Amino acid sequence: MKNNFPSEKITKRLTAALQQPEFKQLKISIEQQEQLIHLLAQLHKWNGAYNLTSVRDPQEMLVRHIFDSLAVSPFLHGEHIIDVGTGPGLPGLPLAIIHPEKKFVLLDSLGKRVSFIRQAAHSLGLRNVTAVQSRVEAYKPEQGFDSVVSRAFASLADMLSWCHHLTSVSGRFIALKGQLTDQELGEVVAPFHIVATHSIDVPDLDAARHVVEIIKQ
Q1: Which 3 state secondary structure label does DSSP give 56?
Q2: Which of 88, 139, 150, 179 could disulfide-link 52, Cβ–Cβ 3.0 to 4.6 Å?
Q3: Where along the chain do its domains lie?
Q4: Rounded to 5 degrees, what are φ and ψ at 90?
Q5: What distance in Å separates the CA atoms of residue 89 and residue 110, rounded to the nearest whole number?
Q6: Which CATH superfamily groups domain 7-216?
Q7: The pTM of the whole model exceeds 0.85
Q8: Longest distance between any two alpha carbons in the chain, whole Å
Q9: For 192, what's the count of Cα atoms within 13 Å in the CB-facing half-sphere?
Q10: CA atoms of 148 and 91, how far apart (whole Å)
Q11: What are the mean pLDDT values of the chain's consecutive 10-residue runs (217 residues total)?
């Protein structure tokens, strides 16, 4: 398998992004930066065989997958987190790298994605990641999660319908969205309540990004 991963350019771009105001607060160590680059290299390497993501260019992957995932970090609630519809581990794997003190369950229904997550987590030495193959409706955790994270997974109403059973008593739903409409926000009804919406800036990404925080009352 041909490896044309531009490690040096990716490293420089990541270093520059971490100096931006949006990311400077994250305090990502050199070791964690190396892990993020290794994850991206693995995603690029196996994407051709497994078709893990439609994004093929490593530079674009860095922005749309790594930077986009890191942007969720300030909104994580608690220590026990699930990433639903994680795909190839996004945003779960980047978040697990920079938050070794938190425990992450990465849930997806496709075996090839879950296999990649397990391989990547092993390669990265991540002991705080559990990959689970299941449809979200069928997954019954032993305990509720502090944060239920989704990234481009579904509409807010569908997310809450499918994931309502996953939060702890004080847990939150954390949805990363592109454009937000009043119609979509208006479809969030009792017993769910929108705590806050945040417009966020992702370095080098020329697209709208929002984080929506929701609780179940």
Answers
A1: coil
A2: 88
A3: 7-216
A4: -125, 125
A5: 12
A6: Vaccinia Virus protein VP39 (3.40.50.150)
A7: yes
A8: 52
A9: 24
A10: 12
A11: 79 96 93 97 91 92 96 97 97 98 97 97 98 97 96 89 96 96 96 97 94 96
